[in-house]
Design goal:
The chain has about 950 residues and is mostly helical. Helix 10 (about 285-320) runs antiparallel to helix 31. The two termini are about 35 Å apart.
Length: about 950
């Protein structure tokens, strides 16, 4: 095999020498065609689902859910401030402007509030059966006090009712629900007495606030809650949420929603200026992907320019000339252009993974030309003419370069054998790119050298230069103490080997993105608080009954915070509640509150009644306190029941609030002149009875006959949770941050224990990252196997093969050990280093062993190999290291780990192998 490749390399050298111009013209034409293809047809695909094989069960379940409910991953707008009114104003303005300014193709549906008008008459059905029964008991208790139809109500009668309530408790001796009735009655009385005390305590002639009682406070609270729950809100209205369902998008674009996202971001910026007190943010899967792509593009462009510039400068500096490095860079540029053309034809697009391949080509593709230039110049310095130097370079360095490039390409191609399309595309594009850059280095570059150097005296080589003196001195220093150097390397290897167990895998995808981007910051905030909506699992039920069963089972799971579905919106036990409500309606129909405009409050009777109530209350409090300290007797022991601490606290709570209101009212009455006291009591009576009338009118406005049905649900909620086929959507929210792996595993396990076809972002992330991680690990083993075979075929010698692989093994050990030592984790972005470092790192060992076989001694720097390896490693590190400059943390981590891996493999190849060869030389002499 080696002889065949050497012959092929010599033939290639002769052909490129003889037909140099034809090679150059053909290469430039291919470059122009590739550029045209890439510019007109190649784009970056911004869709995570497109990275997975379409026959994947997890993806199929997710796509089935999207089709069933005619939806897509929503974009989320969050408005947050302590002012609910300001938040609603922002939401209303955003909804109006987005609806008017953003095309329906970009945003199909805006959902931020519900029309509750059809549900409002049924709100009593959302009370528990116990609360409805208690309400029925209260109405019945108040019916005698308020009077039947046509019977007038006054303040004295209402105060007498309090005494009757205490007497009722006394007669019952703690049986039944009399204490609960007293507590409910006292709550109303406390608010009434507090309002009365305020009325009576005002200075003479000063206006007063309107009387209020507990019942009207409940009406106000109901109206506030109704307004609050009209919007999709959290934290009691301090955070409002709007979901934007994307439309078809720009079907001709690889980023179909980029235009809509830009428009929405512009609208948000303008609304934010008008509402500076409200924090407004935009996030969601589509927004994160779009922002990720933009950030990656910016970082990639900057990193590519930086890498190209640094590689050019280092190349020019190392070889102290401009011509041949410039030709090498031209050949590299053509090779990268061909790679783009191949990507267009073979795949048709890039994705968030494959987009980084250009940086890889910059760092890796130039290596082949570097090795070629080093050997070519060395041969010219030794006096060879142009053709002889090309032939020698091609049959020696060319063969090593083919093997080195082949191992790197093999590392990429092994990525094709997995279930992750994004990774397979990376293998196809980058593997082909390496081979095309290798082709440009071994065909186009020699042709360029032929055309240029044939026109210059001696090919531009300065013969006076002593090529190897400095290199020989460096080789001598490098191998002066091989045993000591190897011992240090082994000690370092043992230490770093202990650190491998500390290497973790970071599964959190948000940790890959730019933390300065607003959508990422908002997503991190939402995922970090389980009470806020962002990520949820999905289960699809066949009908409402099935949904109710699934909801109960899911809510029982320890990892589930809440389940949202129509069964949670429809009240439970509606038939039983309607029975109570019909009884309540009968009682309300018998009550008609009227006031006698000519009646006047009996001041003496009012004072006497209040003092009697006070006396009852004080005696009751004393007995309750006494019995709470030691099991005493009396009425309140019988009322609360022996040993029932909660009932004791219930009694004490009643009196702690009732007594201050009673005392304040009595003291205020005693201080006022009789005439003024009567005037105020009369005014208060009118206001109090009016508020009671309002409360009963409010209650009578509810529907006591009909249950809540699906048709009563808000239209947007109905369309969201019920499909046209009658399927029911259940959104399951986790208790923990499922962006973290352990929490995600527990949550997904609980979902799948209920429904094996459960889907949603947590399930997708769990599966996809696992597939990605396993695919790269498998690719690493495939790469290693392929590389071992290729190296063995290259050397046709087991001992030399092991020597070439030795620095690779130690280099990977050092890389992973340093990661553990420094706390650098693997993640879904940098796990690609496993197969890549194997493919790239072995090349340095191949170059070193090849030179050793040719010279029979360690002659790295006394020849061109050492310098070429240094330059190859340097340019590769520059290519990957330039990724570390950006803000997109996925690229930063990839650049960091790849630079570390290449550096480790370079050190072990040049340092360890040199010592091994030095020891072998000494043993041979001995």
């Amino acid at each position: 095999m080696r002889v065949f490749i050497q012959g092929l390399m010599r033939a290639t050298a002769r052909l490129t020498y003889r037909y140099a111009w034809w090679v150059i013209i053909t290469a430039l034409a291919a470059t122009a065609a590739s550029v045209w293809l890439a510019v007109t047809r190649l784009g970056v695909l911004n869709d995570t689902n497109a990275l997975i094989r379409q026959d994947s069960p997890v993806l199929r379940h997710y796509l089935d859910y999207l089709r069933e409910f005619n939806t897509r991953d929503p974009m989320l707008i969050v408005a947050r401030s302590p002012d609910f009114a300001a938040n609603t104003a922002v939401m209303e303005e955003l909804a109006a402007r987005i609806g008017a300014e953003v095309p329906a193709a970009q945003v199909r549906d805006i959902y931020y509030k519900n029309d509750l008008s059809r549900m409002q008459p049924h709100f009593l059905l959302y009370q528990s059966r116990d609360d409805l029964a208690k309400m029925l008991g209260q109405i019945r208790a108040q019916k005698n006090l308020l009077g039947h139809k046509g019977q007038a109500v006054n303040l004295n009668r209402l105060l007498d009712g309090a005494i009757e309530q205490f007497d009722k408790v006394d007669r019952a001796k703690g049986k039944g629900t009399t204490l609960d009735d007293l507590e409910a009655y006292s709550e109303q009385m406390i608010v009434t007495l507090e309002a009365l005390a305020r009325e009576l305590s005002l200075p003479v002639g000063e206006a007063t606030n309107r009387a209020a009682n507990m019942l009207n406070a409940e009406i106000d609270e109901f109206e506030q809650q109704l307004a609050l729950n009209t919007y999709i809100q959290f934290e009691q209205g301090q955070l409002l949420l709007m979901t934007l369902t994307p439309g078809l998008g720009d079907e001709q674009s690889f980023s179909p929603y980029a235009t809509g996202i830009r428009q929405i971001q512009r609208i948000i910026a303008e609304v934010r200026q008008r509402h500076p007190t409200v924090q407004i943010g935009l996030t969601g899967e589509a927004v994160l992907m779009n922002d990720e792509l933009l950030a990656a593009n910016r970082d990639m462009l900057f990193a590519s320019l930086l890498a190209a510039g640094l590689i050019a400068l280092s190349f020019f500096y190392a070889y102290r000339q401009l011509v041949r490095p410039a030709l090498a860079l031209l050949a590299l540029g053509c090779g990268i252009a061909w790679s783009y053309g191949m990507a267009t034809l073979a795949v048709g697009h890039l994705n968030i993974i494959t987009e980084a391949f250009v940086l890889m080509m910059l760092g890796l593709g130039i290596d082949f030309s570097i090795q070629f230039v080093g050997r070519y110049e060395e041969m010219r310095h030794r006096g060879m003419d142009l053709l002889a130097a090309l032939e020698d370079t091609m049959q020696h360095t060319g063969v090593a370069v083919v093997t080195g490039g082949g191992t790197t390409a093999a590392a990429f191609f092994t990525m094709c054998f997995n279930d992750f399309i994004g990774l397979s595309e990376m293998g196809i594009i980058a593997g082909s790119g390496i081979l095309l850059c290798l082709l440009s280095s071994l065909v186009l570059f020699p042709a360029l050298i032929t055309v240029v150097d044939s026109r210059r005296p001696n090919g531009g080589i300065r013969p006076a230069r002593n090529y190897g003196a400095a290199g020989r001195r460096l080789d001598q220093v490098l191998t002066s103490r091989p045993a000591l150097a190897l011992t240090v390397c082994l000690i370092v290897s043992v230490f770093l080997g202990w650190q491998i167990d500390r290497v973790k895998f970071d599964y959190n995808l948000l940790n890959l993105q730019n933390p300065k981007i607003e959508s990422v910051q908002l997503a991190q905030e939402l995922t970090g608080n389980p009470q806020l909506p962002f990520i949820f699992g999905v289960v699809v039920a066949d009908d409402l009954a099935h949904a109710a069963t699934l909801t109960r089972e899911l809510e029982a799971k320890p990892t589930v915070s809440s389940v949202i579905s129509p069964t949670k919106i429809l009240p439970e036990d509606q038939n039983a509640k309607l029975t109570v409500l019909r009884q309540l309606k009968q009682e309300l129909d018998q009550i008609q509150i009227t006031a006698d405009p000519k009646s006047s409050v009996n001041l003496t009777k009012a004072k006497t009644t209040l003092k009697t109530i006070l006396q009852y209350s004080e005696e009751g409090q004393k007995e309750a306190v006494k019995w709470s300290k030691r099991a005493g007797g009396g009425l309140w022991k019988q009322v609360v029941g022996k040993g029932n601490k909660s009932r004791i606290e219930q009694v004490l709570g009643i009196f702690e609030r009732l007594l201050p209101a009673l005392r304040q009212s009595i003291e205020a009455l005693d201080k006022l002149p009789a005439k003024e006291a009567v005037r105020r009591l009369n005014r208060y009576e009118v206001e109090l009875i009016g508020s009671i009338q309002k409360q009963f009118a409010f209650l009578k406005g509810f529907d006591f006959e009909h249950p809540v049905t699906v048709s009563d649900l808000p239209e947007q909620a109905r369309n969201h949770y019920i499909s046209p086929n009658g399927k029911i959507l259940l959104e399951i929210y986790p208790k923990e941050n499922v962006m973290e792996r352990a929490a995600n595993e527990r949550f997904v396990a609980d979902l799948r224990s209920i429904d094996r076809q459960a889907t949603g972002t947590p399930v997708q992330n769990y599966t996809y990252i696992s597939v990605l991680k396993e695919s790269y690990q498998t690719a690493a083993w495939y790469a290693l196997a392929a590389i071992v075979i290729m190296v063995l075929l290259h050397f046709r010698n087991l001992w030399h093969t092991l020597l070439a692989l030795l620095p690779l093994g130690f280099g990977i050990l050092w890389m992973v050990g340093i990661m553990g030592w420094l706390g650098l984790p693997f993640n879904p972005a940098n796990i690609i280093t496993l197969p890549l470092v194997i493919g790239i790192g072995v090349a340095y060992g191949i170059y070193v062993v090849d030179r050793y076989r040719e010279e029979g001694r360690c002659a790295l720097f006394s020849g061109s190999t050492g310098k070429a390896i240094v330059m190859s490693a340097l340019t590769t590190i520059i290519g990957f290291g330039s990724m570390m400059i950006g803000d997109y943390r996925g690229l930063v981590s990839l650049g960091t780990i790849m630079s570390l891996g290449v550096c480790c493999c370079f050190v072990t190849s040049t340092l360890m192998l040199s010592q091994v060869f030095a020891l072998l030389a000494r043993w041979r002499k001995e």
